[in-house]
Amino acid sequence: MCASASLLTMAGSADIREASVWAKLDNPSEGVSAKFFAAKNPEKKFEAKIVQLGDKYNPEIVKIVLENLSPATEYVYEVSNGGQKSTGQIKTQADYKTRTPPPDFTFVALGANHINDKIFDEAFREPGGEYEIFEAVKNTKPAFALWVGALNNYRNADTGSRSAITSRLAELRALAQARPLLNSQPNYGVFGANVLSDASSKSAANHSKVFDIFWCNPENAVGNARAYSFSYADADFFVLDDFSNSSNLDYKSARPKMLGDEQLEWLFTAIQNSKATFKFIVMNTPVFNPVENGKNFTHAEQERKRLLNFLSDKKIEGIIAISGKKDYGEVTRFIRAGSYPVTEVTAGPLTARAAKEVSEMNYFRVPSSSTLCRSFVQIKIEGAEGSRAATITFFNSKGEAGFSTTIRESDLKKFD
Fold first, then answer.
1. How far apart, in whole angstroms, are the C-alpha atoms of residue 179 and residue 6?
2. In the list 189, 313, 318, 340, which could disulfide-bond 215, CB 3.0-4.6 Å?
3. Nearest-5° angle of CA 226, CA 231, CA 236?
4. Strand pairing report for 330-336 and 319-323
5. Are residues 40 and 70 in contact, defined by beta-carbon separation less than 8 angstroms?
């Protein structure tokens, strides 16, 4: 399951009856065709729908839609363009509600990437590496991957050019070691700042537009934010955009923000409506890390306070957070008065530079959870209905397990 260096594909989002595939064509003028079939019935092939995803600057990027699918079924897709062909696999979700107990499943959270470029990399600094980690991730057979870190870190020379930003992200999709993983399970992108400061940055518009055409995420939920939600078994995922409405302005009545009122209100409503056992808040920036700096949600103090008050006042059960944006991994267990502690797992760098020591005094960090190497996070949801558990485990680039902790369903229902 791999593509040539010119025709690139990636499995996108997948639901019960429909799935999507991202593709960057070698030559759009030569047309594209896409077929799919159930892995157990390769003789019966279907035509997929081709939707233009790129704009006039990137007409080579398309979204391929697989429709009228069956639940809990593995499908194979074949994309052809200009004499080249790329194949991959994507599995639909089970239609289990009112039929069976929730199925067990695992997924992965992946941090920041750095694909080396000698011309534009910073001098005298360790570049990216250990790209064998993509194979280690694939070997865990995740139901899907959450890319919570930068797809590929921008270099200083990139930020003034849309074509440079586009090329930088395409480097990851073209990386030989990454392509088998990208075409093995659904992939979901999380929008963050990369190396930019906030939405006032000169490259903000290009950064946003390129993100839009590089992912096949579910439909945006609110306003101009790249926020969305999806479900898998008895877990709901609320994926936030901490960049589109961000501002570092702290002057007179203005205070720093990351989400904006509209996105916050959508989040509150969506969480309140959720009946899922586990409710995952997913954001590039760490949510519950208490250290006050621009790399944590504490920077947007008023927004964070509103979120904490909402979760406590409404007695929301089942909250776990997933984040990235750090050069090391860790687990935070945020203690709240009158409510259960909220656990957050922060994915460290996948292939980007890893810190040699922890730089923050996070007094809610779970002992021994600091992960000072390139790594990824696996989250396993399992157990009988009513007694489910989420096990969080860090793995290094060789696929060796490191720190692990388990959160029981009952732990996420305790209020004084």
1. 12
2. 189
3. 85
4. unpaired
5. no
pLDDT digits (tens, 9 = 90+) for 399-413: 999 999 999 999 999
Token pair listed for 142: 């995740």
Q: CA-CA distance, 71 to 93, in Å (whole number)?
A: 6
DSSP 165: H
- 3-state class percentages of the chain: helix first, strand second, coil last, to nearest 5: 15, 30, 50
Q: Are 170 and 8 in contact (CB under 8 A)?
A: yes
Helix (H) or strand (E) holding 265: helix 261-273
Strand order in the sheet with 49-52: 8-14, 19-24, 61-66, 49-52
Strand partners, 281: 238, 321
Q: Judging by beta carbons within 10 Å of its beta carbon (0-12, 13-18, 19+), is residue 236 exposed, middle or buried?
A: buried
CA distances from 239 to 20, 156, 190, 381 (A): 18, 28, 7, 18
Residue linked to tokens 């001098």: 123
Q: What is the pLDDT of residues 2-47, one digit of tens each?
A: 434 589 999 999 999 999 999 999 888 888 999 999 999 999 999 9
Per residue in 119-148, pLDDT (tens digit) is 999 888 878 999 999 999 999 999 999 999
